[in-house]
Amino acid sequence: MNTLIKLISLLVIVASAACSSDETAFTGSPGGSNGSPTDPAEGGEDPPVENPEPEVFVDKSLRPPAEFFELVEADMQMVHDTFAGRTKMRDGSTLTCEALTKMYIERIFMYNDNPQPNGGLPISAVLAINPQALEIAKGLDAQYAADGGVADRYLHCMPVLLKDNYDTVDHPSTSASYSMLGHQAGVDAPSVAGLRKAGAVILGKAHQDEFAYFTTGFSGRTVLVTNPYNTQESSAGSSSGSGAALASNFAIGGTGSDTCQSIRHPSSVSGLVGIRPSIGVISRKGIFPLSHIRDTGGPMTRSVRDSALMLTAMASIDPVDDPDTTLFKAEDRPDTYLRFLDRDTHGVKGKKIGVLRQLGTSTTPAGTGEQGALIEKAVTKMREMGAEVYEVFLPSFQNRGGGSTHYDTNRYFFEFVRDGGKSPRKCLSSAFFASNPDVLPNCGTTEGILETLRVGPRTAGLVAVSASGDPGGKPTQAQIDAIALERDYVTKVMNGELDALGDKEAMVLDAQGNAVKVKLDALVLSPGPTGGRTCDFGSTTQMGSIVVPVGFDSQAGTPRGMEIFVRRFDEGTGLGIAFDFEQATLHRRAPNIAASPLYANQTIGEFNSRAQMALMKAQFEAPEDLPVETYVQALRDLTGL
């Protein structure tokens, strides 16, 4: 009986916390964007109700407040609980946004550049700290006092590190290239504006592979971002800095951009949750492009809940500069992705999940070696949690893309200047520039990226190949149609419509090995580094993926993740599965990293200056000597041609 009373008491506490939390203040009409369909009641439809009360959303993802605040592995709920006094500071002090922001800045000072005992190299995840971060935090403290809480700012005081290709009004974006120094936007990227509106603190910029061309964490401005779990291992890329920084607890949230695997792979090897949303969920405006037919931005965090909050903030409709966002209609967009973090309603139990066993010519897309074994254990766990598991074979899948890097880059500069941005750069290359209505009227000799001679040697060949492409070369209708056909192929298989595939082949097997036709909720596969090239699956189809940790690779000493793949614009289903699995397994662990008192007492200006100037001498040093053929092939791989 005592056990029952304790259980009931705990449920009352959780329900009370959920109803009283400012983060749950979402209301709306049944159906539509709230994700609650209005089915007729049994025995006939209910009579119409005039001015029905708005549905009050109760956040089922909240947990009982922690006793004490801990910076390492802190998340938005812990921060808000501590602001409100539900969680205490160990020293009895009051947590403010300014104090929290200082804590993260000081942690970056202490850990970012210190050679780590686990591999001998520094992590080097953070490129620059926003000089305005503390002023932003002070402003949020004033709003908190005025509103008596976080109000509708569900990201109130979330310190966020942005990948260096996101435009912001308060700090330059250089895409980790010395050729882009002085590139200052006049407006935030829409995704960044959404984060600010929700209350986030733009803490600074994270390193990345230069212009996002590679997946190793290398650029002239970084030399190398390393994996904080073992600094001899790769942090993956191109969103390497965001992955390594969040794993190291340098911020609560981060952003990445993904053309092929650049959110998914860094999240996998950093023990993070990363979302590559369907193209059209988040506007790509203000994110320096690689190939917009495959590019998308997305959140990276240490928990599914925080990623769901960030995705809610970053998503928007942008009809002028990213018309693809209009394909995800306002009435179909959830008011908050937290709605799907209800384990009873949207969790693993009853879900039909397909394990991807063949993707084109690859027969190991679910991973090999220890990562493959970890994903198999994860699948077994989901089966134990009540999922129906199937094996899926897609032999007719083909990698698709469009070679529009030159056009996309020059279009980016057009929008950048139009919106008040100031930059010494105006195009990819003045030598190959051709004016058209979608780009600037001219680009001088010194205004092209290639002509600066300040692009890293590892990247220069790719920039040259991109610049030699057609500057007016938008993706052709044939390329767009080919992508739509691949998406249709995968969607039909997930819908169980195997008879409608025409000349394409596919097979779905049940647990007994029988071929079946079943409507699948999601597919699972390896986001890398094993299992062959799997990143094209989401990039080609433009469909959504959520990466969630599945454990640790004992040989590499780094985490590994599993990719949960869903239909276009169905990120909610993937989040529900990911959240339930995350809570059932709790694989996330912080790395064991060491601080250095040598860096403790610096200023933001000193940190930024040292990060910029210390590596100038290395800008012409490549980590390896790659022939130009390798550059060309890498470009083909990135663009899907």
Task: Please explain how this structure is put together.
There is one protein chain. This protein has a domain at about 100-335 and about 590-600: Amidase signature (AS) enzymes (Alpha-Beta Complex), CATH 3.90.1300.10. The longest helix has 19 residues, at about 1-20. Strands 3-5-4-8-10-9-15-16-14-11-12-13 form a twelve-stranded mixed β-sheet, sandwiched between helices. The protein starts with a helix and ends with a helix. The chain has helices spanning about 1-20, 75-85, 95-110, 135-145, 190-195, 240-245, 265-270, 305-315, 345, 370-385, 405-420, 455-465, 475-495, 535-540, 570-585, 605-615, 630-640, and strands spanning about 25-30, 55, 125-130, 160-165, 200-205, 225, 230-235, 255, 275, 295-300, 350-360, 390-395, 505-510, 520-525, 545-555, 560-565. It is globular and about 65 Å long. The protein is α+β, with helices and mostly antiparallel strands and about 650 residues long.
